[in-house]
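hey can u run this one w/ 3,4-dihydroxyphenylalanine bound, need the C-alpha cells asap thx
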Amino acid sequence: MSSTLSCQELIEQLEVLEQEAQKDIEEVSDGDSLEKLRISLLGKKGRLSVVLSAMGRLPGEERPLVGQRANLLKTKVQQFLSDRTKVLKQQALEVLLREETLDVTVPPIGVPVGKRNPLVTTTEEILDLFCGLGYRVAEGPEIENDHYNFAALNIPEGHPARDMQDTFYLGGNLLLRTHTSPVQIRYLEQNKPPVRIVAPGRVYRRDAVDATHSPVFNQIEVLAIDEGLDFSHLRGTVLAFLRSFFGDLPVRFRASYFPFTEPSAEVDVQWRGRWLEVMGCGMVDPAVLEGLGLDPERWSGFAAGLGVERFCMVRHGIDDIRRLYTNDLRFLDQF
Ligand code: DAH
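ok here u go:
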C-alpha cells in the first residue's frame, strides 16, 4: 500500500472493504470459514489494520476522520459476523433435526432377553415365604469338612450317610457338603438364639443320574431356635409353608429318623394320586445344641431340609430332573 494515500482515498478503501466484507460474510457457509474470514478482516494482520497503518501517515487533523470511519466499519463487520454466526447455527440445528429424526412409534427389533431358570424362581419363592414368617437367609460353603457336615450334626462314625458311596471326599478332612444342614452349625456358632433362618444352596452326592436323581442338587435348610419351641410349632410352620406353596394338597407327617433331630419326621404331599416325600424335619437333637454350648433345658428348636428340585418339579409338572440342568431353551422358554 502506498504511503501517499490521502484521507479521502483511505475512507473510500474503508467503504469498499465494508461492502466486500458484508458480501464475503454472507457467502460463508460454515463456522470455521467464518472464523478465518474474521481474522483476515479484523485480525492483527488483517485488511483493517493495513488501512489503519496507512492512516498513521496522514496529517494529524485528518486522522480522526479516518479513525471514526474505521471504528464504524469495525462495529458493522462485527455485527455482520455475529448475524452470520446465528444463521449458521440455526441452519446446523435444522440439518441435525431433519437428519436425526427418530420415529418412536416403530416397533422394536426383538431383543433376546434371558430367562431365569425355574429352580432359581422356586428357590426365591420358598425363601420369600419364610422371610414373610420372619426368617433370615443364611449361607455356608459348598466345600465342607467332616466336623460341620457330620460330627457336629450328631452323625456318628459308621453312619450310612458317611459311606464313601454317598459323599464326594476331596482329600484331607474336606468333602463336598451332602446337605445344607452344616449351615445350622455355622450359623449358631456365629449367632446367639433366638434364630430363624433359611439356608439355600447346592449339595453333592455320589448318585447316578436318572429322572429323579442328580449328583448336584439344591436344598433349603430351615432352622428355628428359641425358648419354648415344640413340635406343634414345627408342624404349624411346615403346614403354613406347604399350603402357601402348593395350595390345598393333602399333607402327612411320617415318623422317621435323622441323627440331628429327635423326634424326626418326613413330610409327604399327595400329588397326582401318590404320596410324594418333599422334606425331612424334626426337633433339633439336644446333643447338637450341647455341642454348640447351648443349654437344651433353655433352648429348643426345629429344623427342616427340603429339596428344591422336587418342589419345582411338582409345581411345574416337570417329569425329569435332568431338564432343569440342560439349558434347553425350548424347555426354559415355558417359564
Ligand atoms: N439334611 C437332611 C438331608 O439331606 C435333610 C433334613 C432332614 C434336614 C431333617 C433337616 C432335618 O434339617 O431336620 O437329607
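The two ends are 88 Å apart (CA to CA). anyway lmk if its weird
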